[in-house]
């Protein structure tokens, strides 16, 4: 075809000669196309014929290698995961908030009183008589910082309020939040129905802080009746709950 196009039209004497040359170019192109097609189909058939051996020699070996690799990883994880779980269970500096009370006291820190409760009560010694201690909202920024310190147990037993740059309101609200965040109420869910039965009695609203523990409003008819019923229920608490409440 290129040969025909490159020819000088003036050298072709007649139309028949030019048509014959064009037919020759078309035939040559067709032969080249057929040859290329034959080569392509031959290669496709060859690969198809060798597919089984290729799969067996390469792909199947790759799958076996992958299987061996993941089996080794699985065995390694089976050995390591229990160690990680044990370290997490025994980590005494694990977060204190939103942690089960018994797990925190008996398993992690090996102490009878939860770290946040003990720390807050100790820091409250100089501010227990402040007005509206559990009612007045503190600085949110200071409270968040103090709670973060409590959560990771970074406050030394000799540190005072002035050292921390906070007041009693921050400590009181942090203690309230710790009690609210307990997975189970300090007075336990098992005794919930019995605490609810006490709602028919009158209650002094000046003691509203304890509604955080009960999570409902209480009413008592007489002070003596209230104390007697409270004593009865307190004796039914688990020891760790009783120690932290008392």
Which helices and strands, and how do they pair?
Elements: H1 2-6, H2 15-49, H3 51-89, H4 101-108, H5 115-123, H6 140-151, H7 161-164, H8 168-181, H9 192-197, H10 211-214, H11 223-234, H12 239-245
Helix pairs in contact: 5-8, 6-8
Could you explain how this protein is built, in words?
The protein has about 250 residues and is an all-alpha fold. The protein has four domains: about 1-50; about 50-90; about 95-185, Rho GTPase activation protein (Phosphatidylinositol 3-kinase, Chain A, Orthogonal Bundle), CATH 1.10.555; about 185-245, no CATH class. Helices cover about 65% and strands about 0% of the residues. It is built from twelve helices and no strands. α5 packs antiparallel against α8 and α6 packs across α8. The N and C termini lie far apart (about 105 Å).
Q: What is shown here, in short?
A:
The chain has helices spanning 2-6, 15-49, 51-89, 101-108, 115-123, 140-151, 161-164, 168-181, 192-197, 211-214, 223-234, 239-245. With 246 residues, it is mostly helical. Mean pLDDT is 82; it is low at 203-210 and 215-220.
CATH topology of the largest domain: Phosphatidylinositol 3-kinase, Chain A
Count of the domains: 4
Shape: elongated
Mean pLDDT: 82
**Would you state the CATH class of the largest domain?**
Mainly Alpha
The helix-strand sequence is HHHHHHHHHHHH
Overall helicity: 55-70%
Largest sheet: none
CATH architecture of the largest domain: Orthogonal Bundle
């Amino acid at each position: 075809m290129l040969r025909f196009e490159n020819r000088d039209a003036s050298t072709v004497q007649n139309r028949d000669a030019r048509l014959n040359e064009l037919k020759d170019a078309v035939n040559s192109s067709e032969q080249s196309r057929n040859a290329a097609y034959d080569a392509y189909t031959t290669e496709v058939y060859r690969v198809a014929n060798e597919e089984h051996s290729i799969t067996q020699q390469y792909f199947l070996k790759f799958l076996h290698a992958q299987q061996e690799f993941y089996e080794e990883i699985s065995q390694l994880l089976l050995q390591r995961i229990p160690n990680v779980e044990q370290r997490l269970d025994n980590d005494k500096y694990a977060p204190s908030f939103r942690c089960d009370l018994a797990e925190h006291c008996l398993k992690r820190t090996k102490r009878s009183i939860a770290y946040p409760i003990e720390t807050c009560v100790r820091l409250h010694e100089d501010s227990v008589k402040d007005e509206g201690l559990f009612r007045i909202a503190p600085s949110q920024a200071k409270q968040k910082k103090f709670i973060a310190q409590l959560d990771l147990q970074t406050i030394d037993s000799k540190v005072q309020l002035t050292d921390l740059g906070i007041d009693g309101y921050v400590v009181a609200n942090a203690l309230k939040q710790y009690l609210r965040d307990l997975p189970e109420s300090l007075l336990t869910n098992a005794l919930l129905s019995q605490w609810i039965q006490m709602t028919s009695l009158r209650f002094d609203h000046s003691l509203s802080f304890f509604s955080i523990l009960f999570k409902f409003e209480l009413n008592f008819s007489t002070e003596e009746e209230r104390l007697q019923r409270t004593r009865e229920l307190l004796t039914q608490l688990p020891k760790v709950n009783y120690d932290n409440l008392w």
